[in-house]
Amino acid sequence: MKSRFQLLDDQSYPQIFQFIETNLSQNQHDTIIEEENFMKMFDYLDIKNHLSFQLITENATSHNIVGVVLGGKRGNDAYISLILVKKELQNQGYGRVLLEKALSLMSQQECHCVSLEVVSDNLPAINLYSSEGFNITAEIMRLKNDHNSFYIHSIDQQYEVMKMDDYPFQPLYRSFLHKKNISWIQQFRTLFILLNHYNAELLFIKESDKIIGYMVLLRQNNILNIYDIALKKENPELLQYFLSQALEGETMVVIKTIGEDDWMYFSLIQAGFYVTKRQLYMERLLSTESNK
Fold it and tell me: What domain range includes position 57?
């Protein structure tokens, strides 16, 4: 039986979607495919066909997908959104085959750095990535609060929380960009797509007409999903007030990504949030032809 790699194209999407739906664990599914529309996910994560492929085995009468890689690129940086091997073929070395092919493609495209995210308890995957030169650069948490224990009605100082649909988000985002390790789904392009194609809301909090914080959120099925939140003041009470003012009757709040070393993480835990998922953000440099 022969095997070959095949780059993705528009015609292969339905088959790839079926493969992913069949072979993803629930834990992976919650991480990788959060959006209702599979094709929108490609835009959301900047998946590129020339960095995404399937490994196929075939004989004279049939062919079968062994594994799939979805890869993206922004500027000179690449991102592996998904490496997935068929359930019954897992732990047989195919994951390494797929990863090495992905790294080769990204190097050929002159990507300087490649990153990925992995659930912190997936030790086989972490060991694989580490053996291929990836290093852990951040730990990213997903937090949940399902009884609004953080809620406060007012705060001593005067603040104004407001929503603006047409505010230029890029300069605002850059003015708050102070961290070195920003995960792919916290980068500007992903948030921009959320705001423009997913009906996400952009909330500001102001002090004396000066913006001191923002929040990118989606309201879905009585859940307030927060994709990014930033404040210029390290003030736990202000954080709770901002979250409280964002509520429109939701009984559950989910903060999608926050770093373990972020001051907000400790404040949110004290306010009654709890961790539902821990992911490691891993990166490695690539050798490209232009760098040799």
Answer: 2-111
Half-sphere exposure of 36 (CA within 13 A, CB side): 4
Stretch (H or E) spanning 19: helix 13-23
Same domain, 187 and 228: yes
What is the rounded CA–CA span in Å between residue 268 and residue 271? 5
Residues 85-130: tens digit of each pLDDT: 999 999 999 999 999 999 999 999 999 999 999 999 999 999 999 9
Domain of 163: which CATH number? 3.40.630.30
Asked whether residue 44 is assigned to any structural domain, the reply reads yes
Query: Rounded CA gap, 220 and 224, in Å?
Result: 7
Helix axes 236-246, 263-270, angle to 10 degrees: 70
Q: Under a CB-based contact definition with an 8 Å cutoff, are residues 87 and 122 in contact?
A: no
d(CA 122, CA 102): 20
- In whole angstroms, what is the distance from residue 42 CA to residue 77 CA? 16
User: In terms of domains, do 89 and 182 share one?
Assistant: no
Judgement on whether residues 107 and 147 belong to the same structural domain of the protein: no
Least confident range of 195-199, 226-230, 233-237: 195-199
Residues 100 and 7 in one domain: yes
